[in-house]
Amino acid sequence: MAGGTPRWADILEMATTAEGLGFDAIWISDHVGFGDPNGEWSGAWESWTLLSALAASTARVRLGTYVTAIPFRNPALLAKMAETLDEVSGGRVILGLGAGWNEPEFRAFGLPFERRFDRFEDGLRIITSMLRTGRAEHEGLLESARGARLEPRGPRPAGLPVMVGAAGPRMLRLTAELADEWNAGMRSPDDLVPLLAAVDAACAVAGRDPHTLARSAETLVETGDGFDPAAVVAHLRRYDALGIAHVQVQLRPNSIVGLRAFAPVLEALATTPN
Length: 274
Known about the structure:
This protein is α/β, with parallel strands linked by helices. It has helices spanning 8-21, 47-57, 75-89, 103-108, 116-133, 169-178, 189-206, 229-241, 256-271; strands spanning 25-28, 33-35, 41-43, 62-65, 68-69, 93-98, 135-139, 144-149, 162-165, 181-186, 214-222, 246-252. The chain is built from 9 helices and 12 strands. The strands form 3 sheets. Strands 1, 4, 5, 6, 9, 10, 11 and 12 form an 8-stranded parallel β-sheet that branches. A two-stranded antiparallel ribbon has the order 2-3. The radius of gyration is 19 Å and the shape is globular.
């Protein structure tokens, strides 16, 4: 936010304004900080603490992690955290999961970076089993759960939705096998076409109807000089035409001004047919 880490008051104002304007969801990235190989560091608040506060401060919008790095936390405990947050929010949580990517933050906090995809697979199996059946029994390569239970259950006993951010073959295979939703990350509609084909192929290998796997993607929208709401509406319609059910919009500026500038886009999408 304007080159710095927002304070809680800023985040709360953004969230309540977004809810009032008609946004569908609020997404929080999961980083302990952003590092680079030169030793530079920029701060970040802990995502699950923020989401808990937002759950108690909003009433309608869904709340998601974009995306939680499974290697940051014990997976059985993470399932417990997600179920608890779903209870607090009244069933509004989307659990976005990934393997993590920013090696300096792993190193700085003593978190294992190597074999993070093995850790992701173990964690995803534990988490989805707990959310859907209430328990997990898994002896993996790096993570295990021995009779882990999810009690009490929240407002969705069949489990809250699990979204996986993935692009590589192994991650797509796991997404097709275990997730409720696939997220493409920040990609243009043109860039999505080959990835969507890869997702469909992964579903075929998993024996899954590809229509049962929801799809989402992120896009950047700059609301400064030259901003054209009609052009943005047309851009978002291209995602819809590709079967993308939800678009995470990253705004520039990331501020109340940016949110209010985007409001005509929301109004147009709400009042015109798909």
